[in-house]
Specification:
There is one protein chain. By secondary structure, the protein is of the alpha/beta class. It contains eight helices and eight strands, in the order ββααβαβαβαβββααα.
């Protein structure tokens, strides 16, 4: 997993509440085990609407998505996170997330930031024309207009994101202890 300290740049000011995983990526695109190309299908049903904010040329290189409450509700498809990340989104800011989406995001190195609706409203205005910065070191979201919104994140998740450590890396860090335990267990069984 790639370490994430700061995510800065343009943000897609989506703002819609209750965006479920089927809206993030439709079930028909879940037949793949590779992540490559899933970004082409991210938020496809919303992108079919003429003049949608997602396909606005000003947001083509966006690394942040600003959403409404209950983002990522629905089924537990990890493909939803993969699709957003394949599209270039590294952070999602919303008033709330489904637990499953937030867990999948963390496991894949995506930052989920919970902010109150008033902060979301302000960021929606700023994101229409200017960049936004999510900083894990200072635990803030900032704008070029001196807006500064503090957010909380589980300390374990923050540390893993900052260091690019996923569950596999954590397990491998204990390789010697695991091997010693297994050797002891084998000795106990064989007597």
């Amino acid at each position: 997993m790639t370490p994430v300290e700061r995510v800065e740049g343009r943000a897609i000011p989506l703002g819609l509440a209750n965006i479920d995983t089927d809206v993030i990526i439709a079930a028909e695109h879940l037949k793949t085990i590779t992540r490559a190309g899933l970004g082409d299908h991210a938020l496809a049903s919303l992108r079919k609407v003429p003049g949608n904010v997602i396909d606005d040329p000003a947001h083509q290189s966006a690394t942040i998505l600003i959403a409404g409450a209950n983002f990522g509700c629905g089924s537990s498809r990890e493909h939803a996170v993969w699709a957003l990340m394949d599209r270039g989104i590294t952070a999602v800011i919303a008033p709330s997330f489904s637990d499953i989406f937030a867990g999948n995001a963390f496991k894949n190195g995506m930052v989920t930031v919970v902010l109150p609706q008033e902060a979301i409203d302000r960021l929606m205005v700023v994101a229409a024309t200017d960049p936004v910065t999510v900083d894990l070191a200072t635990m803030t979201v900032t704008t070029p207009f001196q807006d500064r919104f503090a957010f909380a994140l589980d300390a374990f998740r923050r540390d893993c994101l900052l260091h690019g450590t996923d569950e596999i890396a954590l397990t491998l860090a204990s390789d010697a202890a695991i091997a010693a335990y297994e050797a002891t267990a084998v000795m106990a069984r064989t007597g």
